[in-house]
Design goal:
With 204 residues, the protein is α/β, with parallel strands linked by helices. It is 33% helix and 25% strand.
Length: 204
């Protein structure tokens, strides 16, 4: 991660440079006032795209909870969210209860083998699989069959080898015949003043 480029050296792009000001101001409010933006901590461009495609009848599965959980709950029918941090899990539970959110099934799970286990779901069940935690590559390959045709998989921090592994592109190659499109988003992230990459995959 850098101020102008991703960890892989990809430039944020001139049109996204103004987002640095938004991210910086949010970072200041976060540091000095403890105020966190109620939006996914993913590239701004990725959030914008997701906001365009999300529908109120969608079923979503999220690996790695956060403010994205609250944001998604406002936009979809049902959301299962898996979180590995007990502290963050408890904080989100308080927020969900306080706001009387009734369409989120929040689960605490730190074991990677369980976080990447989608066996309870029938194939073609999900409209969106949102991956921002856990063993990400395994979550992608095991969760892919659970996404319906025309559905989406969002992969955050796609530029980070520590999260996805250096062979992550082979995941896409192995499933190329079942993928209709891939869209990359290189942009600033809320309250972090850094440039990251997200990938949105659509299933054929």
């Amino acid at each position: 991660m850098g101020r102008l480029k991703t960890g892989k050296g990809q430039f944020v792009g001139w049109k996204n440079l103004p987002h640095s000001l938004t991210s910086f101001s949010q970072a200041l409010r976060r540091k000095f006032f403890g105020r966190f933006p109620r939006q996914p901590w993913i590239p701004f461009a990725a959030s914008k795209k997701l906001d365009e495609i999300l529908r109120s009848n969608w079923k979503v599965w999220e690996v790695g909870s956060g403010f994205s959980t609250l944001w998604l709950s406002d936009r979809v029918q049902s959301l299962v969210s898996i979180e590995a941090s007990e502290e963050w899990f408890k904080l989100l539970c308080i927020m969900i209860e306080g706001e009387k959110i009734d369409n989120v099934d929040l689960r605490y799970e730190w074991r990677g083998s369980v976080m990447s286990d989608f066996s309870e779901l029938p194939d073609g069940h999900l409209d969106l699989l949102f991956i921002d935690g856990g063993p990400r590559s395994e979550c992608f390959t095991k969760g892919f069959p659970k996404v319906k045709k025309g559905g989406f998989i969002y992969c955050d921090n796609w530029d980070n080898d520590d999260f996805w592994g250096k062979s992550r592109d082979y995941i896409l190659v192995d499933l190329i015949e079942e993928i209709s499109s891939c869209q990359n988003f290189v942009d600033y992230v809320p309250a972090q003043v850094g440039v990251y990459e997200g990938l949105l995959v659509r299933k054929r």
